[in-house]
Design a protein that fits this description.
Length: 196
């Protein structure tokens, strides 16, 4: 039987976790970035399709390529973050279905069906993006997920010639708690949920 997380674990992932916009000057090493993906990949996706791909932007040169493609309000957030993870959906995910779902002939579910390929890729890459944030938080990192960028420009600059398409960005590092804003309200259970 699964054992629930301790109150400290729940707090780390949800109650104290916040969207960070300001960062401490502390590096994030590559092994930790690899570990985020190793954890995030374990979350369920439809037919185990696993379409999320990640480009970790760490060098000043790579950041300079990204900055002109950001909305004005996101430029300094990305510049200051130790790492920006560019999350993408891979439209060729289905080519890996023989590996990901052996014995099911799952490739045939997608072959020649571009609408199903795109819908499945995008929906599941976003789902995996949520796992990505939870994985990063579970490893002690703070996250600053955001949209606010020229998706077509990002795809042309970073993913040209590939079937990858950007979904959203996640700044990663150790946030500055002194610069957090108050948490915005959330909807109450009785408003957002129904029980039948």
């Amino acid at each position: 039987m699964p054992v629930p997380l301790s109150d400290d674990g729940v707090d780390l992932l949800f109650q104290s976790a916040r969207t960070h916009r300001h960062w401490q000057d502390r590096p994030v090493d590559e092994e930790l970035l690899r570990r985020i993906y190793e954890l995030a990949r374990l979350g369920p996706t439809s037919a185990n399709c696993s379409p999320m791909r990640v480009l970790y932007i760490r060098t000043p040169e790579a950041k300079e390529r990204l900055l002109p493609l950001l909305d004005k309000g996101n430029v300094e957030r990305v510049r200051a973050a130790p790492v920006t993870a560019m999350l993408a959906s891979d439209l060729d995910f289905w080519q890996q279905m023989d590996v990901l779902m052996p014995g099911a002939n799952a490739k045939s579910w997608f072959e020649g069906d571009p609408v199903n390929i795109e819908r499945t890729s995008v929906r599941n890459a976003w789902l995996q993006g949520g796992y990505f944030i939870m994985a990063a938080r579970s490893l002690g990192l703070d996250c600053g997920p955001m949209g606010g960028f020229d998706s077509a420009g990002v795809d042309a600059e970073f993913f040209a010639g590939t079937p990858w398409h950007s979904t959203f960005l996640v700044n990663l590092g150790y946030g500055d708690p002194a610069k957090l804003r108050p948490r915005n309200p959330r909807l109450e259970v009785d408003f957002a949920c129904r029980f039948v």
